[in-house]
């Protein structure tokens, strides 16, 4: 899922940007370890942006500000109970 891909890309030296949506159940526990440790060589390479994958204007805004060379879409609920 997205947290594993983000970790892999960070280990390869990529700067990784993710889109998170504002929700009543805000949860970044699956990626917290990727940007929380200021002593990590990955610190500062993981950036999160507020947005909604179903809203094209929010996607355009993030893409225009980041200007990515690659885009991966892993926006799915892989842990649905």
UniProtKB/TrEMBL annotation:
Pfam families (alphabetical): GDP_Man_Dehyd
DNA repair found in the keyword field: no
Pathway(s) it belongs to: Nucleotide-sugar biosynthesis; GDP-L-fucose biosynthesis via de novo pathway; GDP-L-fucose from GDP-alpha-D-mannose: step 1/2
EC number(s) from the headed UniProt entry: 4.2.1.47
Domain of life from the UniProt record: Eukaryota
Enzyme class: lyase
Annotated keywords: Lyase
Signal peptide: none
PANTHER family (UniProt xref): GDP-MANNOSE 4,6 DEHYDRATASE, GDP-MANNOSE 4,6-DEHYDRATASE
Protein name in the entry: GDP-mannose 4,6-dehydratase
Species name: Bracon brevicornis
